[in-house]
Amino acid sequence: MNLIDITASHSKEEVFQKVEDFLTEKGFRISKVDRTRPWGGFFVLDESQIREFRAMFFEDVDLSEEQLEQKLSPKFLLVAPGARLSWQYHFRRAELWKLINGESGIVRSETDQLRTLEEMILNETISLKQGERHRLVGLDTWGIVAEIWMHVDPDNPSNEEDIVRVEDDYARK
């Protein structure tokens, strides 16, 4: 069941507004919004609300008290129909993804070689290992993916610069 009423015909601005309204209605504080990504964009939520975020979107994931005290960077990725994030990996984090709305696909591999696109299943958690290559792909509708970063070194947490792009539709480095 989709949580937000979004269709492929909604504009990027409408989708962002609907997601912002949803997050605000659920009591989440937004610490950053990025609407500039060519594939869509993202919302970063207030780190102090990680317990509420986990309870709502990652109740199936066991996180220790110690992990919940660390920076987990709760986030929502919004991927447009037909758009793709870069084929990428990270040195300083693993990731947990869950499709909470719409449709999205994922490609993943232990090497730089692209594999077959798999359709993500609504409300099913995907665990991406540190260094695992991955790409989020928009299908027929906007996809909304909840995300948690599992930092390899909590004293030196990952950030947006911790992206190694193997391939990118938008010629980014």
UniProtKB/TrEMBL annotation:
UniProt entry tagged with the keyword Membrane: no
InterPro entries recorded: Man6P_isomerase-2_C (IPR001538), RmlC_Cupin_sf (IPR011051)
Keywords assigned by UniProt, alphabetized: Isomerase
GO biological process, one term: polysaccharide metabolic process
One Pfam family in the UniProt entry: MannoseP_isomer
Ranges of residues in domain Mannose-6-phosphate isomerase type II C-terminal: 73-168
Protein name: Mannose-6-phosphate isomerase-like protein (Cupin superfamily)
Organism lineage string: Bacteria, Pseudomonadati, Bacteroidota, Cytophagia, Cytophagales
